[in-house]
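Entry type: protein chain
Record version: 2
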Amino acid sequence: MTAFALLAAALYAISTPFSKLMLNEVSEVMMAALLYLGAARTSTYYAAAPFIGSAISLVIFRTVPSLAYLIALAIMIAGTYLSASDTKA
């Protein structure tokens, strides 16, 4: 049991400087979202970006989406909705 505690302490000591370096790269908006909403819900909202990009590209390039595209879009929308509507337990 003591060996596991020492291993955990060593891993924490090693990972702390790296996590501080990575957090310097995270924007204030992202940190606020992570703290306020939680990681799962924040990633769900950031997952909406492909929908926005896809809609803009359809308007700009004036293309008609294929059936496979529409099916994939429906699956992605359903997954995003389910993830966003999940309540905290």
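Comment: The helical segments are 2-24, 28-37, 39-46, 49-61, 67-85.
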